[in-house]
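Backbone description:
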Amino acid sequence: QVQLVESGGGLVQPGESLRLSCAASGFTFDYYAIGWFRQAPGKEREGVSCITSDGSTYYADSVKGRFTISRDNAKNTVYLQMNSLKPEDTAVYYCATPLSVCGVGVQIHDFGSWGQGTQVTVSS
């Protein structure tokens, strides 16, 4: 059974940083791409970033140059380092796997699993 647990969210001021973690279990972690998504109040969930099993990465234009995704296969964990945070980054952030797309976008597979989410609030 796939389990994904996000952590690391919080309240920060514009320009500050956060690092989110997604701890995974219940599947062969090394084999799968993992994605980060976010959902702001009143908006649809959107793909933010993803990383493939071989370490290739994708970023949405809105976060490119500010966010960095990485994975530690020894710890079954994916990270999202978020720098230069903006108020428009405020959202609940979710990790998910498996993915149907990671490269020209990021989409969860029809049978994919979500974590419970972690709240990120950027406000002065």
